[in-house]
């Protein structure tokens, strides 16, 4: 109670909820680094020491951080850089260059970006002058002039490192790694990639210049740890303005995590993927359902969010098809069964469909050929079927060979949920013979 | 001060003057006393006499070579005209290492006596451009004694003979050309003087003026503008030498070089014409004033400016002159002379003279060596013609001789357009806090083990070193050219060895054991395009910037034309295979140049593959590369051991058996070996201190380092994968077994996956989830996938062996 007295007043519920939303969203969308890198402390220490040696002792280094997507490579590096900045010597000296293989798609662009970020002297304002060749010579000259003890160390961060290996001759990598192995300006090259075979991408002379240090981010958390992480992700800190709201919220998170169905859902996610990004997506969906009227997360929210995140997009699209289109799909499925995945064309599908009409139905209309063709084209546009070869111009549309892009399970699932699906169509779909 | 009698790119006609002095029967040559050079279409005739200093055409048009004529001879037919010369070196031709020995800042126009053996002293008379005046640096000039003390180090700069110098300086040497020149040679620094510029256009202008005023040209003065900062004591001995210039009787024509003409009014000091005068009043020697003032050239007006600042009248003059000049040439950067003033202070004395070549034949003094090559440029380019009158030393180039007292407003190239990266100096900012020094044994060891640290010697490559050394050395000594191809897998010390060889040769050249040479280095990986090789070679050779095509043409010219006094060039081409082009013209040229007679080019090429010439070179390229090949074998364990030991150099950081383990794990790449050791030291440093540990690197640390660097992460990655991912891998293997193929579509694998899910008691996953799992595995390259737009039809392959997958999954 004394605590509550110290608070000037409880914030209105709306204020609390919006604060909560803001705080958790920041956390979940990676804008906020965790205080300590979870599960990768050893790697953190290793990388920190390595970069410290570059920034403090001027020792050149090169290292690769390898880990699957969402394993926390960038988070690790950011944490390390943040901790490095606390060191005074490092903070004052270290120059940083951040490149991304998806942005700097060739060496020309990458060089301009490096020059710009280093503020070398051929940069005027934000523009880098000179041709590609001049830029390269200039940068190399600049790095060559430096030496271990007197120049500021430069940190090169190459995100999506594997894409740099696709550049022509790997010129940039060769030169950066060559500098890191010669008595020039001290540099640290940190590559980040999700490819385990990244070293095989390097040309032998580039590879020889790489120090072969790799930091693997392959953490293997148990489900208990995973659950604990959900709690810490959702928990409110002590410094939340309204402590009573925070306490209530934390208690609700606790009960949520103990719920059997919630555990079920989370376990399913855990089995599917251990990376945090997909977990964050799930939690974001739950979080967006929190409102003033319902300032906590119910298990049902989590179930719904899970359903959304596991939803099969193609099966959902089937729900929007007309009965005719659905029938065509079913005919294709039967053709696939009969011919074991051989491609088909419109004529075959139409025949299959006609057989069905003759056998069963009088409730169905016998559609004209042009209508069928139209429906067929629509399916193609939705990419539910795709032509076997792209040379579509040569053959008539009716005879062009197609393949079905859907799995049988998807079709059956969609049929179950299709609103007011005629029973004979359902039966036809389930029947083993065409 | 040099005069131009001819325009460049003009046809010159060379003729002997007078009868042959003697006839050599054996060689059938006639010796002559003088040579006349005339330019077609111009009435002037220039006479070159024995003992005179001349400019000789070189590869750099702006900077012709300087030499002194010793003999002139020709054959009976008169077709061949030859000259034997004594070479002089310009400052920028002197290797940097030797410049340092000089112990002072040389004047940019200074020339040095050349005693090297590597240059042919016989030149074709046709390459003679014009005579030039050189002047012996007088005793007052700062450093001769200091120079003398270093005698053996540089033959090129022998001990100056003080008496000779003094004589020369005082103008007594007039009769004794030989002495003077000898003295000059010894003095080792002939200060060159600025010529009053002769711009062709200005010539025309002044010629007109002259005609109008019917002035007679021909008085020639040598002017010495000694600055106030001269040492008083030495001033007398270094004072100006003035001598009247007689009109050359042989060529009575109207002097073509109007600018040289002394205008009567100039003596009176009228301020109207831009002419130099203000300088003199300042001097302490009143007697000389008049003479100095006579210093004709209407084009020397501004000379005084820097110094004139001390006197009002001088300032006035100079300011007027400036104004005038400004009108003449907007390019002029007047503001610069203020700063320049300081720069010339160090020059203790400078003689300046202006004279006309026509009259030079009467002048015996060699004291005056003036070549103002920069004027040359101006002249040739014909740019700034209008500005001509003002500048004895207008120079567009950076090498402008900043020390002469009579500075004109220093004209530089117009301040850059926005596109000025040319003047940007590439550099990395320097650190605000110094780098920490290694603090303990491990850090020390790590520093030594870093690949970048330059070892004191290169162990295990003695034989290769010797071979390359003798190859290059012999080529340098013979003045011939050649190619060598060096191959070897990465990390076998190819580049390091060649660089070590070049360091040693450079040292040998510094102590004059071998003729001096030029070493340049290019790397195929460090250029964006094979043709950039030309640009880089040219830039490193001459400092010029050019486009690839132009550079190729210039290099072609340089290497195919005979040039007197050419030093051998040693070119190291690293990563040769990157210079491959479809037509292979870059490689062709690189290997063709050394075969030219006058190229004096040694090309050392380095590449990874032994059979590169056979594999990628077309016949004519491979043939030119020749058969001088060398292959660097991968290091053996023993050798790697030796390398590490020599690097560590008694720093005890490793346990013996730990090192043994390192060798055992390696395959001949020295870089890798060094990296392992370095990583091991790091691991050792950060491993928790074990009380029993010695603090040295142990076997365990090396194992850990090897593990970090070489272990394949695939197994760990599979172990760390999520359950569905692991199931998917199992489904892939199951499907492969069913099909008997190493490839299946996603759809097929997915059926297996669903079955496995049911077996494991898991909820079956949807197709899109299955695709996501599949893509994640593909992202790590545990699986190889087709493009994902194929959806369920994409084909799947394993990127790991099935055994690895099963092993990883079982251990789980």
Automatic annotation (TrEMBL), chain A:
Would you tell me the Gene Ontology cellular component terms? cytoplasm; nuclear origin of replication recognition complex
SUPFAM superfamilies noted in UniProt: P-loop containing nucleoside triphosphate hydrolases (SSF52540)
Annotated CDD domains? AAA
Q: Where are the transmembrane segments?
A: none
Q: Give the UniProt keywords, A-Z.
A: ATP-binding, DNA replication, DNA-binding, Nucleotide-binding, Nucleus
> One of this protein's GO BP terms?
DNA replication initiation
Q: Where in the cell is it found?
A: Nucleus
Q: Does the keyword Transferase apply?
A: no
Q: Where in this chain does the record put each AAA+ ATPase domain? A: 59-220
Self-association or partners: how does it assemble? Component of ORC, a complex composed of at least 6 subunits: ORC1, ORC2, ORC3, ORC4, ORC5 and ORC6. ORC is regulated in a cell-cycle dependent manner. It is sequentially assembled at the exit from anaphase of mitosis and disassembled as cells enter S phase. Interacts with DBF4. Interacts with POLQ.
Check the record and name the PANTHER family matching this protein.
ORIGIN RECOGNITION COMPLEX SUBUNIT 4
The task this protein performs is described as:
Component of the origin recognition complex (ORC) that binds origins of replication.
The similarity comment for this entry is:
Belongs to the ORC4 family.
> What name appears for this protein in its UniProt entry?
Origin recognition complex subunit 4
Gene symbol? ORC4
TrEMBL record, chain B:
Protein known as: Origin recognition complex subunit 1
Q: Which GO terms describe its molecular function?
A: ATP binding; ATP hydrolysis activity; chromatin binding; DNA replication origin binding; metal ion binding
Q: Which GO terms describe its cellular component?
A: nuclear origin of replication recognition complex
Ranges of Polar residues compositional bias?
A: 417-430
List the top taxonomic levels of the source. Answer: Eukaryota, Metazoa, Chordata, Craniata, Vertebrata
Top-rank taxon of the source lineage equals Eukaryota
Sequence ranges assigned to domain BAH in this UniProt record: 46-180
Compartment annotation: Nucleus
Could you give a single Gene Ontology term from the biological process aspect?
Answer: mitotic DNA replication checkpoint signaling
Family to which the UniProt record says this protein belongs: Belongs to the ORC1 family.
Q: Which UniProt keywords apply?
A: ATP-binding, DNA replication, DNA-binding, Magnesium, Metal-binding, Nucleotide-binding, Nucleus
């Amino acid at each position: 109670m004394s605590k509550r007295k110290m608070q000037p007043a409880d914030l209105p519920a709306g204020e609390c909820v919006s604060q909560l939303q803001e705080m958790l969203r920041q956390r979940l969308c990676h804008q906020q680094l965790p205080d300590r890198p979870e599960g990768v402390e050893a790697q953190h220490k290793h990388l920190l020491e390595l970069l410290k040696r570059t920034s403090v002792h001027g020792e050149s280094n090169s290292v690769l951080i390898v880990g699957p997507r969402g394993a926390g490579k960038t988070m690790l590096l950011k944490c390390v850089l943040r901790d490095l900045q606390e060191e005074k010597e490092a903070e004052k000296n270290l120059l940083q260059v951040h490149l991304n293989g998806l942005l700097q798609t060739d060496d020309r662009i990458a060089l301009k970006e490096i020059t710009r970020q280093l503020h070398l002297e051929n940069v005027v304002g934000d523009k880098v002058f000179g041709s590609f060749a001049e830029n390269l010579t200039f940068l190399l000259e600049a790095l060559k002039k430096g030496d271990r003890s007197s120049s500021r160390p430069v940190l090169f961060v190459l995100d999506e490192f594997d894409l740099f290996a696709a550049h022509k001759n790997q010129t940039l990598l060769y030169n950066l790694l060559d500098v890191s192995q010669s008595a020039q300006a001290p540099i640290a090259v940190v590559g980040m990639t999700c490819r385990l075979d990244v070293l095989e991408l390097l040309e032998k002379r580039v590879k020889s210049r790489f120090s072969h240090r790799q930091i693997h981010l392959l953490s293997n958390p148990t489900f208990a740890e995973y659950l604990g992480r959900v709690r810490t992700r959702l928990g409110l800190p002590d410094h939340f303005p309204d402590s009573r709201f925070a306490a209530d919220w934390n208690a609700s998170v606790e009960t949520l995590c103990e719920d059997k169905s919630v555990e079920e859902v989370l376990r399913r996610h855990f089995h599917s993927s251990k990376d945090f990004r997909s977990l964050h997506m799930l939690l974001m969906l739950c979080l967006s359902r929190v409102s003033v009227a319902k300032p906590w997360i119910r298990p049902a929210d989590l179930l719904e969010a899970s359903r959304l995140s596991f939803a099969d997009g193609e099966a959902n699209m089937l729900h929007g098809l007309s009965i005719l289109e659905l029938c065509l799909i079913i005919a294709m499925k039967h053709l696939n069964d009969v011919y074991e995945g051989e491609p088909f064309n419109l004529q075959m599908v139409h025949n299959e469909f006609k057989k069905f009409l003759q056998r069963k139905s009088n409730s169905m209309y016998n559609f004209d050929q042009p209508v069928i063709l139209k429906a067929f084209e629509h399916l193609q546009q939705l990419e539910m079927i795709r032509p076997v070869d792209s040379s579509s111009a040569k053959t008539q549309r009716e005879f062009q060979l197609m393949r079905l892009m859907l799995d049988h399970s998807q079709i059956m699932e969609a049929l179950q949920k299709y609103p007011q699906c005629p029973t004979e169509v359902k039966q036809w779909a389930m029947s083993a013979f065409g | 001060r040099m005069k131009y009698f001819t325009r460049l790119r003009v046809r010159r006609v060379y003729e002997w003057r007078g009868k042959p002095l003697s006839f050599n029967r054996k060689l059938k040559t006639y010796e002559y006393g003088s040579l006349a050079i005339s330019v077609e279409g111009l009435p002037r005739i220039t006479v070159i006499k024995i003992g005179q200093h001349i400019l000789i055409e070189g590869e750099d048009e702006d900077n012709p070579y300087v030499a002194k004529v010793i003999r002139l001879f020709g054959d009976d037919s008169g077709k061949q005209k030859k000259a034997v010369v004594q070479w002089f070196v310009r400052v920028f031709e002197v290797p940097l290492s030797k410049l340092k020995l000089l112990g002072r800042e040389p004047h940019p126009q200074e020339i040095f006596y050349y005693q090297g053996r590597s240059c042919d002293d016989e030149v074709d008379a046709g390459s003679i451009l014009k005579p030039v005046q050189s002047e012996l640096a007088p005793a007052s000039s700062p450093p001769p004694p200091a120079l003398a003390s270093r005698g053996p180090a540089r033959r090129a700069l022998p001990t100056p003979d003080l008496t000779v110098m003094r004589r020369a300086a005082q103008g007594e040497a007039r009769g004794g050309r030989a002495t003077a020149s000898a003295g000059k040679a010894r003095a080792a620094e002939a200060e060159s003087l600025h010529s009053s510029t002769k711009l062709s256009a200005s010539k025309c202008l002044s010629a007109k003026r002259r005609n109008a005023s019917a002035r007679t040209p021909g008085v020639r003065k040598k002017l010495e503008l000694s600055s106030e900062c001269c040492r008083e004591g030495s001033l007398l001995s270094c004072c100006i030498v003035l001598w009247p210039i007689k009109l050359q009787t042989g060529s009575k024509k109207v002097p073509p070089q109007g600018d040289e003409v002394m205008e009567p009014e100039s003596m009176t000091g009228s301020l109207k014409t831009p002419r130099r005068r203000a300088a003199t009043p300042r001097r302490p020697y009143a007697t000389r004033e008049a003479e100095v003032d006579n210093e004709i050239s209407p084009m020397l007006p501004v000379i005084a400016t820097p110094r004139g600042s001390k006197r009002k009248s001088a300032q006035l003059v100079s300011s007027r002159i400036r104004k005038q000049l400004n009108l003449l040439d907007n390019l002029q950067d007047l503001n610069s002379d203020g700063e320049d003033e300081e720069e010339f202070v160090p020059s203790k004395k400078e003689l300046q003279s202006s004279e006309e070549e026509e009259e030079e034949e009467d002048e015996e003094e060699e004291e005056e060596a003036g070549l103002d090559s920069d004027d040359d440029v101006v002249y040739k380019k014909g740019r700034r013609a209008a500005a001509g009158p003002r500048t004895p030393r207008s120079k567009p180039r950076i090498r402008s001789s900043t020390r002469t007292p009579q500075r004109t407003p220093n004209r530089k190239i117009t301040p850059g357009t926005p596109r000025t990266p040319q003047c940007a100096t590439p550099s990395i900012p320097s650190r605000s806090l110094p780098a920490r020094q290694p603090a303990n044994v491990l850090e020390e060891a790590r520093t030594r083990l870093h690949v970048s640290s330059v070892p004191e010697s290169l162990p295990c490559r003695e034989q290769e070193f010797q071979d390359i050394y003798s190859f290059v050395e012999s080529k340098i000594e013979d003045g011939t050219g050649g190619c060598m191809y060096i191959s070897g897998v990465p990390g076998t010390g190819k580049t390091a060895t060649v660089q070590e060889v070049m360091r040693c040769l450079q040292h040998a050249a510094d102590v004059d054991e071998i003729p001096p040479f030029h070493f340049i280095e290019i790397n195929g990986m460090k250029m964006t395009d094979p043709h950039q090789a030309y640009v880089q070679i040219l830039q490193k050779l001459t400092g010029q910037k050019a486009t690839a095509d132009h550079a190729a043409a210039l290099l072609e010219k340089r290497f195919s034309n005979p040039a007197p006094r050419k030093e051998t060039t040693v070119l190291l081409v690293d990563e040769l295979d990157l210079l491959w082009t479809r037509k292979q013209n870059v490689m062709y040229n690189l290997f063709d140049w050394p075969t030219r007679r006058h190229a004096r080019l040694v090309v050392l090429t380095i590449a990874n593959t032994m059979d590169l010439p056979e594999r990628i070179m077309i016949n004519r390229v491979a043939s030119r590369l020749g058969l001088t090949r060398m292959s660097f074998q991968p290091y053996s364990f023993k050798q790697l051991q030796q390398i590490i030991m020599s690097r560590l150099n008694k720093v005890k950081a490793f346990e013996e058996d730990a090192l043994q383990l390192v060798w055992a794990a390696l395959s001949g790449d020295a870089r890798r070996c060094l990296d392992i050791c370095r990583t091991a030291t790091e691991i050792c440093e950060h491993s928790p201190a074990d009380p029993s540990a010695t603090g040295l690197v142990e076997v365990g640390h090396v194992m850990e380092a090897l593990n970090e660097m070489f272990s394949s992460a695939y197994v760990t990655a599979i172990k760390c994968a999520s359950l569905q991912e692991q199931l998917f891998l199992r489904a892939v293997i199951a499907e492969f077994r069913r099909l008997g193929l190493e490839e299946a579509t996603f759809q097929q694998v997915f059926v297996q996956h669903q079955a496995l899910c049911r077996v494991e008691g898991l909820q079956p996953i949807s197709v899109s989830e299955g695709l996501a799992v599949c893509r994640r595995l593909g992202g790590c390259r545990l699986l190889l996938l087709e493009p994902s737009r194929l959806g369920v039809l994409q084909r799947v392959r394993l990127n790991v062996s099935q055994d690895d997958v099963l092993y990883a999954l079982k251990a789980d």
